[in-house]
């Protein structure tokens, strides 16, 4: 596959704070690439640099074989950008917002494309509704349609489903799957590890640095660990005890406790003994493959 985004040794500082520290990554044409990390990891800074919206201190950034600093105007004609904050015009209708962005991108014959996008995003029945009167999920779909009106080669999405209801999130991902079939490259940031599982490749990011980068399955395989999952009563009490006593990762998910370990059979016996000594009972336990969230938390701990 051909690289469509190439970042090498990218550094960005805000005063004394280093937002990005020698970041390097390659995104291939036609793939969905996810930049994953907590707030403050440097995700939005990265995406804004790629879109030519802010500068950087060191390194090189190329999109479609063009240097971002030298050819920013040319590059911006071929990319679409959906920011975290809804940035369309609330006093314009769906139709009028799309028309406005078509004119910004000098697209004159946009009528057929607009119909296609409204059908694609299922917004056609609401085309005359003002943007201010749309739900959160519909606003994101409108922002997506506006960012696609000029048929970009790369679509940048900065945490596109944050604050969106589960049904709208599912619809949004169906739309993204359709865009991939059209050959559009999607570069997205997300704090949601379940969303990252859908990407072709991901970069797990923390404090301006990449901890791991590959397909989700390969990242989990390379870590070489498994998870002991237990279900117990008195979960908080047992969780606190395991957190103190054991050097491996202990994570709580609802009514379950996950322990990321190297030797699951051996560690499960130790866990059972600890809980028995507390006069508590394990309702059920099993050994499972780690999720991307398990792996990410483990990598952050090791990095720290």
What does this structure look like?
With 304 residues, the protein is of the alpha/beta class. The chain folds into two domains: 218 residues, Rossmann fold; 80 residues, 2-Layer Sandwich (Alpha-Beta Plaits). The protein is built from eleven helices and 14 strands. A six-stranded mixed sheet has the order 6-7-8-3-9-10, sandwiched between helices. Strands 2-1-4-5 form a four-stranded antiparallel sheet, covered by helices on one side. α3 runs parallel beside α5.
Which topology of the largest domain does CATH recognise? Rossmann fold
Q: Work out the strand percent.
A: 25-35%
Please tell me the total number of domains: 2
Mean pLDDT rating: 90
Q: Uncertain regions: pLDDT < 50 for 5+ in a row?
A: none
SSE succession: EEEHEEHEHHHEHEHEEHEHEEHEH
Assign a percent range to the helix content: 25-40%
Placed side by side, the strands forming the largest sheet appear as 6-7-8-3-9-10
- Count of discrete alpha- or pi-helical segments spanning 4 or more residues: 11
Level-1 CATH class name of the largest domain: Alpha Beta
Question: What characterizes the major β-sheet?
Answer: 6 strands, mixed
- Output the radius of gyration: 22 Å
Number of strands: 14
Identify the CATH architecture of the largest domain: 3-Layer(aba) Sandwich
Net shape: globular
């Amino acid at each position: 596959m051909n690289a469509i985004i190439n970042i090498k040794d990218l550094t960005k500082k805000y005063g004394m704070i280093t937002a990005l520290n020698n970041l390097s990554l390659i995104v291939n044409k036609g793939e969905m690439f996810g930049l994953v990390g907590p707030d403050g990891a440097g995700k939005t800074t990265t995406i804004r640099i790629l879109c030519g919206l802010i500068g950087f201190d060191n390194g090189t950034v190329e999109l479609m074989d063009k240097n971002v600093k030298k050819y920013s105007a040319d590059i911006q004609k071929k990319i679409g950008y959906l920011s975290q904050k809804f940035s369309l015009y609330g006093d314009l209708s769906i139709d009028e917002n799309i028309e406005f962005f078509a004119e910004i991108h000098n697209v004159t014959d946009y009528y057929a494309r607009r119909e296609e996008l409204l059908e694609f995003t299922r917004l056609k029945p609401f085309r005359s509704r003002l943007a201010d009167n749309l739900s959160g999920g519909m606003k994101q779909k409108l922002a997506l349609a506006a960012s696609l009106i000029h048929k970009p080669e790369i679509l940048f999405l900065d945490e596109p489903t944050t604050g969106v209801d589960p049904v709208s999130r599912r619809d949004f991902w169906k739309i993204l799957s359709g865009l991939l079939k059209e050959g559009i490259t999607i570069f997205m940031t997300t704090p949601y590890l379940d969303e990252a599982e859908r990407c072709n490749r991901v970069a797990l990011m923390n404090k301006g640095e990449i901890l791991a980068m590959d397909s989700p399955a390969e990242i989990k395989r390379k870590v070489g660990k498994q998870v002991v999952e237990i279900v117990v009563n008195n979960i908080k009490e047992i969780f606190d005890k395991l957190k103190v006593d054991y050097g491996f990762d202990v994570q709580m998910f609802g009514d379950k406790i996950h322990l990321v370990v190297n030797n699951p059979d051996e560690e499960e016996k130790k866990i059972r003994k600890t809980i028995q000594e507390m006069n508590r009972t394990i309702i059920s336990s099993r050994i499972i493959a780690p999720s991307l969230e398990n792996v990410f938390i483990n990598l952050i701990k090791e990095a720290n």
